[in-house]
Amino acid sequence: MASLPALPAGVGREQLLVELRRLAWGAADILRAYARGEEPPYGFPPAMSVDDGGEGPVSAADLAVNHWLLEGLRGAFPSAGWALLSEETAGEVLVPGQPLEAEWLWILDPLDGTRDFLQGTGEYAVHLALVHGQRPVLGVVLLPEPEEIWFGLPGGDGATPGEAWRENRAGERFPPALSGRSEQLVLVASRNHRDGRLEELLAALAPERSLTIGSVGGKVAMILRGEADLYISLSGRSAPKDWDMAAPEAVLLAAGGGFGHADGRPLLYNTGDVHQAGCLIASNGRRHADLCERARGAMARIDPGFRV
């Protein structure tokens, strides 16, 4: 059996999972209300139109879920000793080049897939990751519209799978169903954030077919369900951030998939730079090392000197 990581002193695993379920489903209710223009629960204010001088639905939803998660974790575990970092608070608490002084750190994304939220595709997510020693030891990916939560606890030694599962509103558990495909792979990609280099790289890897979906959490969930096999992030003028990657990575690794830099380096968090730059590859794990090697070779031709 996999060696699962410890948790902060005084925090029990089942107690933590119970609280994370409550916070996740609460966040789903908040986001779905804002997405539909309905009265948000828990006393959060309705979204005002930007034209009226107020915050639009995306900003209002972001801020409401951010408050819900931060206050929920603080209130449920007042003596846990962990630090809290979210996309919404990063500008207030981070100093460029300086990691946060915290042994345990929550990295949260209250709304991953902002464009899809605004466009009404339903392809958005909420990410919660608990990081210890610059690596995630627990990840939660909430998909509000299909009403599913993915939990992942990677193996404590960093080399073996841990535990991963999906839950619905009724609390029923379902195991991951990563595909057995090692050939004719299905790629899941963004509608946005694509450039010529990425198109060249994808042509070199030659997936059988491609699907598009918003949110990194949504892409990884497709790999976890066996609907896709491969996702690639290639930074250019911008790069994903810690809160985009930490929770999806934790769940996929816990399920036995692969996720890392094309040169084999693991993703590190709370390094003083929140950008996850390079060529990042997530897969069903069947041919992960081979895919990384092929991506390295392709990038050496496409963009010499680019650090994958």
Task: Please specify the SSE layout and strand pairing.
Layout: H1 13-35, H2 57-76, E1 83-86, H3 90-93, E2 104-112, H4 114-119, E3 125-132, E4 135-143, E5 148-153, E6 163-167, E7 173-174, E8 186-189, H5 196-205, E9 209-212, H6 216-225, E10 230-234, H7 242-254, E11 258-261, E12 279-283, H8 288-302
Parallel strand pairs: 1-2, 8-9
Antiparallel strand pairs: 2-3, 3-4, 4-5, 5-6, 6-7, 10-12, 11-12
Helix pairs in contact: 1-2, 5-8, 6-7
Question: How would you summarize this macromolecular structure in one to three sentences?
Answer:
It contains 8 helices and 12 strands. The chain is an alpha+beta fold.
How would you state the average pLDDT, rounded?
92
Percent of residues in helices comes to 25-40%
Described by strand count, sense and barrel closure, the largest sheet is: 7 strands, mixed
Compute the number of structural domains.
2
Question: What would you say this structure looks like, in words?
Answer:
- This protein has 308 residues and is α+β, with helices and mostly antiparallel strands.
- The chain folds into 2 domains: 13-174, 2-Layer Sandwich (Fructose-1,6-Bisphosphatase, Chain A, domain 1); 186-302, D-Maltodextrin-Binding Protein, domain 2.
- The chain is 33% helix and 21% strand.
- The protein has 8 helices and 12 strands.
- The strands form 3 sheets. It has a 7-stranded mixed sheet with strand order 1-2-3-4-5-6-7, sandwiched between helices. Strands 10-12-11 form a 3-stranded antiparallel sheet, with helices on both faces. Strands 8-9 form a two-stranded parallel ribbon.
- Helix 1 packs antiparallel against helix 2, helix 5 packs across helix 8 and helix 6 packs parallel to helix 7 (242-254).
- The two termini are 33 Å apart.
- The model is unreliable at 50-54 (pLDDT under 50).
